[in-house]
User: What shape does this take?
Amino acid sequence: MEGAEFRGKSLAATARDIADGYLSVNPLMLKKLMPDDYKNLYHYLKKIQTEVRSEKFPLHDTMSIRSRNMRLHRLHNAIIVLQHIARERRVVLA
Assistant: This one.
């Protein structure tokens, strides 16, 4: 899984940037990736999604709740777009 890069960053760093909102996933961005990179990016997105979900839920801090939910929303949308483009290009992700 190591070695693949996007814009000079590893795919793990790219997945974190997507979760934090610094980068958005769209078909033009994914066009530059190789089929193996689709699988690796999908793996990292799912891994970060699991990490965010496993963090302790902030019960009384509305800004933290909103931040957590936005991260999950961005990750979910990125995974959906990635799955759609991979299906179009006939790349098996799982």
Q: What stands out?
A: Residues 11 and 65 are 26 Å apart (CA to CA). Residues 62-88 form the longest helix (27 residues).
